[in-house]
Amino acid sequence: MRVGAGAIAAGAGAKVTLLEPTTLLATQTAAAGNPVRFASIGTGVRGCELLKASLRVPDVECVAVSDLWEGRLTAAQETLKKQVATTRNYKEILERKDVDAVIVAVTDHQHRRVVVDACNAGKDVYCEKPLSHTVEDGFAMVAAVQKNNRIMQVGSQRVSSILYEKAREIYSSGRLGQVCCIDAYWDRNSASGAWVYPIPPGVNDQNIDWTAFLTGAPSIPFDPVRFFRWRCFTDYGSGLGGDLFVHLISGIMFITGTNAVASRAQSTGGLFRWKDGRQFPDLIQTYYDYPNFRVAMRCNLNNDGGEFIGFYGTEGTMIIKDATLTFSPQNTLPEMESYSTKGWPEDLRKQYEADWEKEHPLPAPFALKLTERVETYVPPPGYNDTVDHEGNFFNAVRTRKLLVENEVFGNNAALGCHLANYSYFNKRPAIWDASARKITG
Ligand SMILES: NC(=O)c1ccc[n+]([C@@H]2O[C@H](COP(=O)([O-])OP(=O)(O)OC[C@H]3O[C@@H](n4cnc5c(N)ncnc54)[C@H](O)[C@@H]3O)[C@@H](O)[C@H]2O)c1
Question: What's the whole-model pTM score?
Answer without folding.
Answer: 0.94
